[in-house]
Write a structure and sequence with these properties.
Structural class of chain A: alpha/beta
Number of domains of chain A: 2
CATH architecture of the largest domain in chain A: 3-Layer(aba) Sandwich
Oligomer: homodimer
Number of strands of chain A: 20
Strand content of chain A: 25-35%
Distance between the termini of chain A: 37 Å
CATH topology of the largest domain in chain A: Carbamate kinase
Helix content of chain A: 25-40%
Chain lengths: 410, 410
């Protein structure tokens, strides 16, 4: 007998009909002899309805009261799903975050889980019940209702799986797994049977949106096997796991991520001396602008060029800050470009394979795609290019690394 | 400084606009120097929306899960009202039944309050906050969410007022007080400034629907001064209190209640011997039929007629039971009539005034209204008549006891 945590998002429980379908899936899993804990989100549309009520009342509603308000969304779903399970003859009991109890800090609307007391759940499971838990919510040490912020239901599911030492945490979504890249951009995109936490983190942070980063970090930290599956069709999905030893034939590259949400800034002719990076980035950080890619080249003639990317919406603010920096440092000037895209290849196999980056650059060169910036990490190589070539680059790389094949590329 | 509990029902918080109006009223009361606790219901329509979702899923949903579902209605309102108070610069904090905490038994959907720990509320009041409490809900000893059943928010308000030793519990409704009778039936109906708990109980149980009986019983038991007021217009409302000594000139009759929800049953020619009432009523009670008025006349020729009333919907079932009874007892037969009305005059002044019943019967006789049954209690006289004459009877009695006058009748 396995203990499995299921998680269904708002779209998967968006109507009574879909809640019935979820109940079918949960019933089958329980009848197959498993202990099941189900984590659910609010029915799609419900959170927006509640936000609408609040915004009619107040432009800046108290975040404590927003959490009281929004947490009702999941509470409705747990009650309805429990009823649907009862109708199928499955003993089931609902629990709010407070009933479980999922203890968080008091950072309303973006609380972090501090501790889960899983005894209540264990006792219900021991009595043969499916436990249906409200995602996205917890309770602080004073008994206030908190919410975990966007995507928080994934985190609830993973945290519960960790606390219960579950055999698997299954995240049911509207896609049937993690793909080598976005199928809308590259026809040959292929579902991965398996991927490591590290790869998933790089894919997620590089613009792939299947899972919330926080939940993947959490799963990795507590070694909770995580599986992404479709709520709407059967299939094995993608297993995300620490364990990469089983497959002798590891892929060099597992997937390709991309985003055009960023803008590039270049500070030209900065005096090349210790502290240059700090001189440029501290004022940026003080302006609450987050920086992603950072590149500093070897200087020439005692000056260097310093480049980085920020979210597109922050570009103008960053330029303002940098104009001050240029004056103070006696640099040559600032250039900016918001027509860029970032494309990354990700794979644990890169660690031990030389020539991966070279293969990437050759593939882009073959399509005449100019590379503006390059950064690398142990399991990722990332380039910044003109955004017009983003789709072309993704397809070229997908093909170069033979990701469309029925098995791994070599 | 007074401590006042306000209670607003679903209609009073049915839209954002109305929640704003409630916030205005609460702000004014707090700025006048009072400590305020506000109990609210779900926005009107919300409970039905939630019931609709449940009924799509299941014909007989689990009552535990219904309570989890329905309790979200009040939770939405407490968050929204707190936000509206913040907007007015009033410090406010919301609390669910579980957060207060309002401990109940585990009779889901019709739980009874067993204990209120008011420390959390007291501590918030001490910090100058308005406390906004979800009505209609509590928590059982195991931490399950419970609801108190219909009209439960009134009970929450009165129970909190008792636990906090509040100076007054103000129930805001869509009427501006308790009337001598229903103004839709009798134009001259007049708002009462004051009424006793006993009178209110008799009026409520006799068909006047301003307040839930349970909340009035509760208020009487713990001597919580209760005031019924309008959410929509200003005015003193009606104060319901133990204290009847202040007014030297007491009214004989405070109000007139009526209902046509009942049916009459008469068992003819029952052998007149000890145990006859039990012989008739025990089988009725065993069939889960509730009996209201019971009348047994002095027998003639060793037999008697035994009459009583039941809810109209139970009449057919009662006839079935009585046919068996007639056979067993050798009685003459059963008669039934569902075209009846019950009209009652209520007033604590009756205790010390003779001739009140006589005046009632004369007034009815003057309009040729035949009386079928009569029962009396210390502060009530009740008649059963043909339902066609109900409105006529109410107006005749209202006039006979001079209830339209600007002051009390004598």
């Amino acid at each position: 007998m396995s203990l499995i945590v299921h998680k269904y998002g708002g779209t998967s429980v968006g109507t009574i009909e879909r809640i019935e379908a979820v109940a079918d899936r949960v019933s089958a899993a329980q009848r197959a002899g498993n202990d099941i804990v189900v984590v659910v989100s609010a029915m799609s549309g419900e959170t927006n309805r509640l936000l609408g009520l609040a915004s009619e009342l107040s432009e800046r509603p108290s975040s404590r009261e927003m959490d009281v308000l929004l947490s009702t969304g999941e509470q409705v779903t747990i009650a309805l799903l429990s009823m649907a399970l009862h109708k199928r003859g499955i003993p089931a009991v609902s629990m709010t975050g407070s009933q479980v109890k999922i203890e968080t800090d008091s950072a309303f609307s973006k609380a972090r889980i501090e501790r889960i007391d899983a005894d209540n759940i264990r006792s219900e499971l021991a009595q043969g019940r499916v436990v249906v838990v409200a995602g996205f919510q917890g309770v602080d040490p004073k008994g206030n209702i908190t919410t975990l912020g966007r995507g928080g239901s994934d985190t609830t599911a993973v945290a519960l799986a960790a606390a219960l030492s579950a055999d698997e945490c299954q995240i049911y979504t509207d896609v049937d797994g993690v793909y080598t890249t976005d199928p809308r951009v590259c026809e040959g995109a292929r579902r991965l049977d398996k991927i490591t936490f590290e790869e998933m983190l790089e894919l997620a942070s590089q613009g792939s949106k299947v899972l919330q980063i926080r939940s993947v970090e959490f799963a990795g930290k507590y070694n909770v096997p995580l599986r992404v599956l479709s709520s709407f069709k059967d299939g094995p999905g993608t297993l995300i796991t620490l364990d990469q030893e089983e497959d002798m034939e590891k892929p060099i590259v597992s997937g390709i991520a991309f985003t055009r949400d960023e803008a590039k800034l270049v500070v030209r002719g900065v005096p090349d001396q210790p502290g240059v990076a700090a001189n440029v980035l501290v004022p940026i950080s003080e302006a609450n602008i987050e920086v992603d890619v950072i590149v500093q080249n070897q200087g020439i003639n005692n000056t260097t060029d310093f480049s980085f990317t920020v979210a597109r919406r922050d570009m103008e603010a960053a330029i303002d800050v940098l104009n001050g920096v240029v004056e103070r440092l006696g640099a040559a000037g600032v250039e900016s470009d918001d027509r860029i895209a970032k494309v990354s290849i990700v794979g644990v196999g890169m660690r031990s394979h030389a020539g991966v980056a070279a293969k990437m650059f050759s593939a882009l060169a073959a399509d005449n795609i100019n590379i503006q910036l390059i950064t690398t990490s142990e399991i990722k190589t990332c380039v910044v290019i003109d955004e017009r070539y983003m789709e072309l680059a993704v397809r070229a790389l997908h093909s170069a690394f033979e990701l469309s094949g029925s098995k791994h590329s070599v």
